[in-house]
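can u do me a favor
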């Protein structure tokens, strides 16, 4: 194990010396038909993605990451925080099973353990306020006891709503009043442990919540009117948001604490502002921004360490925050690139699709030509299908928003049929449905054929999800633009 640690350390050192910019990706698994882990790891490697952030510690996922050199942030779901906070032995068992075993036996390059996921969201009503820090302490102690304290660092991925600005400008940044003392305790702990502060930043959410948000300020093209903060100009929301955190840290005596952007991205469907063009523009702009090495005004010339959200669409995520929630991937559920995106990691300058993906038969469930739109069974049938499938691509401003009534019904039926693995009984809506082998897709709307189900894992963890909660930052930085 010593030689392995030395090799990983040399790789990291060379990366820092060369100034090489690497991009990470969040790999979520809340999908009805997830791609096999081996397929995803090949996708990561062929696209030159050298860092991955996980939301749990699934054995199969971690095992296939072994010997790849891909840097891993392994996650602890929020529902485990109480047990890890209340028992040092529980923390030691978790680390032994989910970290030590993989590092020692499988040569998995685990560098971080994410303790919880956005546990201080205001929408959680304080559920994890008392357990997050004790869990963080216990996991850190367990890593040290296992001899991994120097190699692997703990962190807590937090939503940008943990800080706010009294002035509406980055210079006024400080931690949220109701959790200020707790945040300082955590920040001091991270600083003492040589661990990073991890934050998730989403300009899209601000646009989604507030229709008056200036669209151009979400992007990196320099087209927005800059915000002037005491002589410092901010040309995009990311820099302003990031520097609000930098100011909050600096104001409390931790100005040099490393920052990781745990999640950043743009969805492609499920809302009028969630589309392919905006997603390409945002993600490509962000990649160019961090590749430039310019940093932000508060941390000029400092590299930005970030994980795109996300790698692949997840059709089983909660849509409580919005229908866009299932469409954050730069790849579709089956590993097809959604748009042209140059990560600066491949010879072609484009995303490379997943290989050897196995699909179900080429057949779809659609509305019968003879069925009537005014049939009283239509409404309950569509409601049933959408309730158990994924109809988030239907609606105003979405990729399938231009379908007519019959096509809408067919889309709902087919989504249910595919998620049910094309079982014959799944296309037996009373006198309404039939199976066809003619692709009903349109130029903008894809009627999916599902991939073959993957049964290799011991079960998926459905413990994370984006929540629309930017607190005081929802309206931050843009009121002064207009």
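np, heres the sequence
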């Amino acid at each position: 194990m010593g030689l392995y640690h030395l090799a990983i350390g040399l790789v990291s050192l060379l990366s820092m010396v060369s100034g090489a910019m690497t991009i990470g990706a969040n790999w979520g698994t809340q999908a009805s038909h997830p791609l096999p882990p081996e397929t995803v790891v090949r996708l990561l490697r062929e696209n030159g993605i050298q860092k991955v952030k996980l939301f749990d510690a699934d054995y199969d996922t971690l095992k296939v990451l072994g010997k790849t050199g891909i840097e891993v942030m392994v996650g602890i779901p929020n529902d485990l925080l109480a047990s890890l906070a209340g028992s040092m032995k529980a923390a030691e068992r978790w680390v032994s099973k989910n970290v030590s075993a993989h590092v020692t036996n499988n040569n998995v390059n685990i560098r971080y353990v994410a303790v919880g996921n956005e546990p201080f969201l205001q929408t959680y009503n304080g559920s994890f306020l008392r357990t997050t820090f004790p869990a963080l302490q216990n996991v850190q102690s367990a890593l040290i006891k296992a001899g991994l304290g120097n190699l692997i660092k703990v962190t807590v991925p937090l939503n940008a709503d943990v800080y706010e600005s009294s002035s509406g400008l980055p210079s006024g940044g400080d931690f949220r009043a109701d959790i200020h003392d707790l945040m300082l305790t955590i920040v001091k702990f991270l600083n003492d442990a040589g661990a990073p502060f991890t934050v998730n930043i989403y300009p899209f959410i601000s646009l989604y919540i507030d229709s008056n948000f200036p669209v151009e300020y979400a992007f990196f093209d320099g087209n927005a009117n800059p915000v002037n903060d005491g002589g410092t100009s901010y040309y995009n929301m990311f820099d302003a948001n990031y520097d609000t955190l930098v100011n909050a840290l600096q104001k409390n005596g931790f100005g040099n604490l490393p920052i990781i952007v745990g999640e950043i991205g743009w969805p492609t469907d499920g809302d009028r502002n969630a589309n392919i063009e905006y997603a390409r523009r945002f993600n490509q702009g962000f990649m160019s921004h961090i590749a430039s090495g310019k940093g932000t005004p508060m941390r000029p010339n400092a590299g930005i360490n970030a994980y795109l959200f996300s790698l692949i669409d997840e059709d089983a995520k909660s849509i409580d925050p919005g229908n866009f929630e299932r469409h954050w991937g730069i790849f579709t559920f089956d590993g097809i690139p959604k748009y042209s995106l140059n990560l600066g990691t491949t010879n072609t300058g484009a995303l490379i699709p997943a290989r050897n993906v196995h699909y179900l038969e080429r057949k779809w469930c659609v509305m019968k030509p003879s069925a009537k739109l005014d049939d009283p069974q239509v409404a309950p049938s569509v409601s049933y299908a959408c309730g158990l499938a994924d109809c988030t691509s239907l609606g105003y401003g979405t990729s399938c928003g231009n379908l007519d009534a019959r096509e809408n019904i067919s889309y709902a039926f087919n989504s249910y049929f595919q998620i049910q693995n094309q079982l014959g009984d799944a296309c037996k809506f009373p006198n309404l449905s039939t199976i066809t082998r003619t692709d009903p897709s349109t130029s903008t709307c894809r009627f999916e054929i599902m991939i073959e189900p993957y049964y290799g894992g011991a079960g998926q963890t459905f413990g994370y999800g984006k929540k629309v909660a930017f607190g005081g930052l929802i309206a931050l930085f843009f009121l002064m633009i207009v």
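The longest helix spans residues 88-106. hope that helps!!
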